[in-house]
Amino acid sequence: MFKNFYFKRNFQSEALCTDFLSKDEPHDLNCLFLSSPKGVGKTSFIINDLMPKLRQDGANVAYCDLWSQESGGARGELLVALNGVLVSAGLHSLSNQHAPLIAAYLSNGGEKQKPNVASVTAGFVLGLLRDILEYTKRDLVLILDEAQDILDDADGMALLIGMRALMSPATLADGAGRLRLICTGSYRDKLNALVLQKEAPFFGAHVQEFPRLGREFVEALTEALNARFSDSNQLDVEDVDTAFSLLGNQPATLIHVLVDHALGAQGSAGLRQTITQNPDSLRLLAWQTQNSGFEGLTALQRRVLEVLLEDGSGFSPFAARTLARIGEAMGEKPSAPKVQKALDGLRERGIVWRPGRGRYALQDQDMREWLGRLLAA
Ligand SMILES: Nc1ncnc2c1ncn2[C@@H]1O[C@H](COP(=O)(O)OP(=O)(O)OP(=O)(O)O)[C@@H](O)[C@H]1O
Ligand SMILES: [Mg+2]
Asked: InterPro entries recorded for this chain (predicted)?
């Protein structure tokens, strides 16, 4: 029930597009990095709101889901996405002489949307990208959803370095469009790996928090649901708002919870009872979407997490007093490298991230108090 509700975020896509397309960054760093926990609507926003607006504003747009692996890795995803641009830009009629790479690609079955990935290299894909920029003379916005996954790809680094080079107009023919990149990620830390270190392909860019849905969404959803429910089964917008916060702003989880309550024994009124008497049940739902939970965490990882929660921004994992405190509950003081390894495991699961060297923080600060109770239980 109620699968088709979608709240359009026109105002946000407009602000993002205007900023992004009009920007000419120094050092040719035309990229936007957006991060948020899972399930808050990044992919939906990009596909339903941002891409149509970018196209309307005159850019070519290519979207790759790097998590899906459907087309045989990053190279394949890029080829399929660029194929879409070739079709919509009508470049299929270009002759060999004008665009040799496009022609080579098309003769390799590209037009049928099933490019032969095995027979092309990362260099070829980058050349195709260049040809498109030069022949359409329009900006191309390349969207890499779950961009961090490209780092696990055999060609990942070569592709990223090549894209960075193509952002510089000096590498392209006169009048060519600009390459702009939008990257999203569900793990801030992994996305940061693309921008923070000196050797990182997009060093100098910074990762922004993806704007989450808020009050307007809650109001629109409540109204739409109430229109379907009987007069005696109406939702209260304040209750829905509280539930949405407890659920970490996950729209689909909220819809699921609201419909479940409305159909339950107590009806919509039961929602107030849940948010006042059992808010942790909603926090747990949010946590389950975002993490694989506590299963498999080692005793050391749990203890390190506890101390991190206690110390907050003052957490200093390798200080002697911290190691001693971690050791107190474990019977033995761990070495700094062991604590480092435990923290790496917590980062890998998306529970913790590293805002800077030697600094660690909870991925979702709203979860702090609740997580503490969960660990203590
Ligand atoms: N504006 C919206 N209105 C209604 N539902 C939405 C909206 N945005 C997202 N959703 C729903 O929320 C769910 C999660 O959205 P989406 O997959 O876009 O999130 P995500 O941040 O990309 O998550 P992940 O990190 O897991 O890829 C989907 O079921 C989607 O339909
Ligand atoms: Mg997504």
From this structure: P-loop_NTPase
